[in-house]
Amino acid sequence: MTRHLAPAGWRAAALGVCLVLIAAPSLARGPASVADVAEGLQDAVVNISTTQTLKGTGEPVPGRRGPKGSPFEEFFDDFFDEEDADGMPRKVSSLGSGFVIDPSGLIVTNNHVIEGADEIIINFTDGSKLKVTKILGHDPKTDLALLKVEPKEPLKAVSFGDSGRMRVGDWVMAIGNPFGLGGSVTVGIISATKRDINAGPYDDFLQTDAAINRGNSGGPLFNMDGEVIGVNTAIISRTGGSIGIGFAVPSNSAVKVLDQLKQYGETRRGWLGVHVQNVTDEIAESLGLQEPMGALVAKVAPDGPAAAAGVKASDVILKFDGQVIDNMRDLPRAVVGARIGKDVPLELLRDGKTMDVTVTIGRLPEDEEDEVEEEEEVQDQEDPALPAPDGEDLLGLSIAPLTDALRSKYDIADSVEGVIITGVEPDSPAAQKNVKPGDVIIEVTQEEVRQPQDVVTRLQAVKRSGRGRVLLLLSDAKGELRFVAVPTS
């Protein structure tokens, strides 16, 4: 018999495990098997292969080939064609995962799996294949797509569960097609919920340590009842291999999107018509809030539902349809799921007092027209900066009326009105908050300013009140707004 010796550290660890198992024989066979659950689900999970014709460049495509001598070298050679030397168009194949949600032939996957594909083939575990006859709809914002095939017999399908019931530590199982290895099953736990990974405005991911690799995209994440509670969509990895940080679109979000794709062929999201930002500790202090909460309205679309309801810039939205808005990210998630045309109550904070308004939810415009602005010749001249009266401290700012000459110099849009900042002292309170020359002060402590003296008056009032910070509403040259809380000393 050949005996292999492990490093000492490994032997010590193994001995420790053995001691535990001896002390607790009931654990000797490990955790309960998931074989019964997996066996009933694998037939509904599919391998999705796509083919796309790319215009040739005459250059090889980097990153398409497996490592020399690796087990996957031949696999990559089979699925990624070399670029023709003469730069002729070529076909590129890719692989992903999906799952059947209706026996008649409805299949869910990620949008990025099928985006740009000329042909989509669904490969089933029994070796059969079906060509996708129609993309019923796709949504890049949530990375979901709904496909249609025409089976001769009903397909094995799975159902969605309630992702809202999942808790950190709950067991989950992923089934998919990593590196072309169809039907691979991995098990882990929910590592986090409501995870924001800066992928888009509606980030609300489930995070799991179940192994998810390239090719798992679009596959299902199951709970231990065999229900789909997530659609695997992203991983954090430098190599493309799993390091135990994977993300899935929660089923409660996916179902709403997929229902709309099935019914309309597109998503129809609710729209409030506001741009919001987080209420930081500093902004909360400047507004007189005891703690940061809500979504601070930085801009209101002139023709949007919020404007019609009387919502104003500098309002803080505390509740939407009875749901507490703890931070900025909560608001778009709540609005997007609201029924278009529904009257929804909002609780606002304005001038230190709470108030209620009712807004009728509109439909989010899918296409935004680009604003085209003509470039004007900039004339170089001295800025008419306002000196601080009687040694008055302007937070390290030099300010001036917004004249036509200054509009031209800083390329300020005609729609922007206020007091322009022409200089910022280095290391001043304003400089530390990234306030720059060319920014326009729209409001000071939630009151509009149009002349430099308005700014001075508001700053003096803040200092007399004893507040340690002043809240400025600033606009950049294009009219994008942001709130900044600047220390007064």
UniProtKB/TrEMBL annotation:
Signal peptide: 1-28
Keywords, comma-separated and alphabetical: Hydrolase, Periplasm, Protease, Repeat, Serine protease, Signal, Stress response
Residue ranges annotated for the PDZ domain, each copy included: 261-352, 391-450
List of residues binding substrate: 112, 143, 215-217
Keyword Hydrolase: yes
Pfam families from the UniProt entry: PDZ_2, PDZ_6, Trypsin_2
Active site: residue positions: 112, 143, 217
Cell compartments where the protein resides: Periplasm
Record GO biological process: proteolysis
Catalytic activity: Acts on substrates that are at least partially unfolded. The cleavage site P1 residue is normally between a pair of hydrophobic residues, such as Val-|-Val
Broad class of where this protein is predominantly found: periplasm
Disordered: region residues: 364-391
Biased composition (Acidic residues): 366-383
InterPro entries assigned to the protein according to its UniProt record, in alphabetical order: PDZ (IPR001478), PDZ_6 (IPR041489), PDZ_sf (IPR036034), Pept_S1C_Do (IPR011782), Peptidase_S1_PA (IPR009003), Peptidase_S1C (IPR001940)
EC assignment: 3.4.21.107
Superkingdom as given in the UniProt entry: Bacteria
GO molecular function per UniProt: serine-type endopeptidase activity
Protein family per UniProt: Belongs to the peptidase S1C family.
Name of the protein described by the UniProt record: Probable periplasmic serine endoprotease DegP-like
Organism: Methyloceanibacter superfactus
Source organism phylogeny: Bacteria, Pseudomonadati, Pseudomonadota, Alphaproteobacteria, Hyphomicrobiales
